[in-house]
Amino acid sequence: MDNRLLCALVCACAVLAIAFAGCTDTSEPGGVETQAYVVGIDAEYPPYSYLDSQGNAVGFDVESMQWIAEDQGFEVTFQPTAWDGIIPALQAGKIDLIYSGMTITEERAEKVDFSEPYWTINQSVAVYEGSNITMDDLYAGTLVIGAQRGTTAAFWVEENLIDTGTMDEGDLNTYDSFPLVITDLVNRRIDAAMYDRPPMEEAIAGKPVEIIGEIDTGENYGVAVRKGDAELLGMINEGLANLQADPYWEELKEKYGLA
Amino acid sequence: MDQIVFFTDILLPALQKGLIITLQLILLAAPFGFVLGVGVAVGRQYGGPVTRVLCKVLVYFVKGCPLLLLLFILYFGLPSIGIVFSAFTASVIGFILCNGAYNSEYIRGAMLSVKDGQMIAAQALGMTRLQAVRTIVLPQAIRRALPGLSNEWIYLIKYSSLAYMITVIELSGSGKLVATKYFTYTETFVAVGVVYLFLVTLTTLAVNAIEKKYAVPGMIRG
């Protein structure tokens, strides 16, 4: 056989082999395929959802989700997603649900369906250690405040301080993730940082930063699914109820310091 | 919400504020980026051994480092050694470094295209090296570098959006804030895209005009 022809044949076989390498038989003989859902999480939201040193998703919400999935008989994978784009990601079908300490708000509820609330938190305010800043300074609008974009902390400042004219719009710095807010607080560029209480405590551990107070926002966390995804929402609500009735719920709270 | 009210009362004022910041970033960074580019190119081509190495190292590091990382170092990193820039200053410095490093390559390439004979002739007429570079080589080189430089100015317009990552709320940042708050991703980003397209069109037209105005008759075909 002509050498060039042989060469072309070998190449063609190689291409075919590569092209079909990903095609494996996925049907389970005689069984029902288990449904797999992609869970969107904020990967920098300890203790609710974060990545361990190996890059695996862990946290209170992540383990709750794993328990519910097992309880309801479906499979889950976790997809770290930028927080300020997590609702569009859900709408676009990149993820199937958001289980990552998401506060139930009216605006969000117009775009997604929420499960029953499973947790209540308040906003906390942190400042540089020994800087003598009080909560009154915050309410007076004299501080430069840092918050993560798309969080209820940022919305609270906009609604209660900026929209009322108490604080200048330029004094709210918003960041891509919360660790960057704390970095800038330590750099002294901002006077105060605002965030949900439990992740705030995790974020400031070991840093010269102290929490000076809470704002009683009484926010409820819920699991978000696409509008009209009643089947998934039903399973989540049932799973949540089962989980909260199970001793494992207390164990989880204990494990992540939320008891 | 009513679409028209959203556009006129929320989106446009936000984008207008962002556009002003974007223009400030670009108009501050572009001239200094140009000067840095010329300086580095001349330094690499005609400087002493130390200048050459310094210029090479600068270009090497800036080209090898993603701009986002450079901005993070300038903004979040430097305070640990006591240098605290405002977010705006850090962005402008980052853009000048990046713009200057890439500009220098276009200008150096154009300088190489000026034949050695001109330099030798200039020196034979009694010009110093610096005089010859300033009055003979650079005027030709900068003209020839213009198409490349215009590329870099257009990049500058677009990468100015990275300033958002270090809290400067410029055009794309103000768009993203509106989009996140009102969940109007498509409308907002299309509007932001139109503004960028307008800025790029303006730059392209301006560079064309500059090229025509400074064309040397008979030297550059146009």
Written description of the protein model:
The complex is a heterodimer of chains A (259) and B (222). Chain A has 259 residues and is an alpha/beta fold. Chain A folds into 2 domains: 36-120 and 220-255, D-Maltodextrin-Binding Protein, domain 2 (3-Layer(aba) Sandwich); 121-219, D-Maltodextrin-Binding Protein, domain 2, CATH 3.40.190. Helices cover 39% and strands 27% of the residues of chain A. Chain A contains 10 helices and 12 strands. Chain A has helices at residues 3-21, 60-72, 86-91, 106-109, 135-140, 152-162, 178-186, 197-204, 230-245, 247-255; strands at residues 36-41, 44-45, 49-51, 57-58, 75-80, 97-103, 112-114, 119-128, 145-148, 172-175, 192-196, 209-226. In chain A, the strands form 2 sheets. In chain A, strands 1, 5, 6, 7, 8, 9, 10, 11 and 12 form a 9-stranded mixed β-sheet that branches. A 3-stranded antiparallel β-sheet of chain A has the order 2-3-4, covered by helices on one side. The longest helix of chain A has 19 residues, at 3-21. In chain A, 37% of the residues are buried. The model of chain A is unreliable at 24-30 (pLDDT under 50). Chain B is mostly helical and 222 residues long. Chain B has one domain: Orthogonal Bundle (MetI-like fold), CATH 1.10.3720. In chain B, 81% of the residues lie in helices and 0% in strands. Chain B contains 8 helices and no strands. In chain B, helix 1 crosses helix 4, helix 1 runs antiparallel to helix 6 (129-159) and helix 6 (129-159) runs antiparallel to helix 8. The interface between A and B is medium-sized, with 20 and 15 residues.
